[in-house]
Every structure is written in structure tokens, then in C-alpha cells.
Amino acid sequence: xxxxxxxxxxxxxxxxxxxxxxxxxxxxxxxxxxxxxxxxxxxxxxxxxxxxxxxxxxxxxxxxxxxxxxxxxxxxxxxxxxxxxxxxxxxxxxxxxxxxxxxxxxxxxxxx
Length: 112
Fold this sequence. Notes:
The chain is of the alpha+beta class. The protein contains 5 helices and 4 strands, in the order αβαβαββαα. A two-stranded parallel ribbon has the order 1-2. The chain has a two-stranded antiparallel sheet with strand order 3-4. The longest helix is centred in the middle third of the chain and has 11 residues, at 33-43.
């Protein structure tokens, strides 16, 4: 467990888990989202997790940097993962460079 989280775990150990946790637009940014996802039930009885849709991540031009000479790219360039739900489970797919150039992903981007 990350050492920076130790005060949080000590608080929970002393006072009990929080009633509700909100994890909004975090998992797509972190290096290992499993660390956060595994921590959530340890610190809260219930909660909500929100991430950008896969349609957002495959749409071109959401963040315009044309003034810097950068061509429109898919989704948010700083995101590390694309999320989807399959059979009731949330899946994290690493946002790999080939997704930027493969036209198969254009279909998803056009759906947003």
C-alpha cells in the first residue's frame, strides 16, 4: 500500500469505514488503478466510481491543441486507461499508442 495513504487507513481503523466514497475521474489517470479500486471497499461501505466513457476516449479533438501544431488526438491525452463494462464488471484497458492510429476505433469515437 502506498505510504501516503497510511493516515487514511489509520483514520478508518480508529473510526470505522466511511459510509460513502466518491471516486470520480481518477482511475483513468493513475498508473495502477487496481491499487485505488482495491482500497475503496477497505475505506467505505458504499460508493460510486465514475470514469470517462470509452466513446469519449476514442473521439478525436476533445482537447484542441491545434494552436500548438498538434493534430487532433483521441480522448484526453493524459489518460492511461479506457474503461468499459462487460458482464457487470468494469474493465480497464491500457490506452496504447496503436489506438491513436487504428481506424477501427473511429467508430467508437463517432458514437459520442
